[in-house]
Amino acid sequence: ASAEDKKADKPKSDPPGLPLEFKITGKTKYTLDLDGMSVDDFKKAVMAAGKGRGKGNIPATPTVDFTLEIKNTSADTVQVWSNGDPVVLTLELKGKGAMSIAPMLAVTNEFRLPEGVGIEAGKTLSIPLKSLTGGLRGSGQLAYWTEAGDYELVAILKTGMLPIPKGAMDNGDGYGIITLTSPAIKVTVEEKK
Hints:
With 193 residues, this protein is mainly β. It contains 2 helices and 15 strands.
């Protein structure tokens, strides 16, 4: 691999240089399941749901077996928000049959406060990812593979960190707002046999 390819395989952060490494691990081979629909009908159903015309019939996203891992590479314990409304996961799925929508869903009006969890030096916080859903409260963004083939998945996590890293915006609660971007994980989707 070229030096440019190797650079692309590294996790990224905003602000740059955070002592946190973010990556996706887990199963990388899946079977295509379009819930009994043809490829064209499934794509139409996804598009309709994305435009708010699905009448509540939003196709289920693929079931996956991934883990999002945040590793603390510093010599000290850090706190990271693990859930709450300010914590937003965005999934970027690329490949021939990749689709992503942000359906209009009703959500409750209250603000869900973030919760911090400590990650000791050299340790990893693991967050299970069981379907290709992200966005606000884990349902505001849906990603799909609609055809067999090779895909790449990148996870982008907006969260908070304590102590506030240099260059991060202070949220007023002692945490700095940060964004972690994983390297792409390669996924193969096979036809049902």
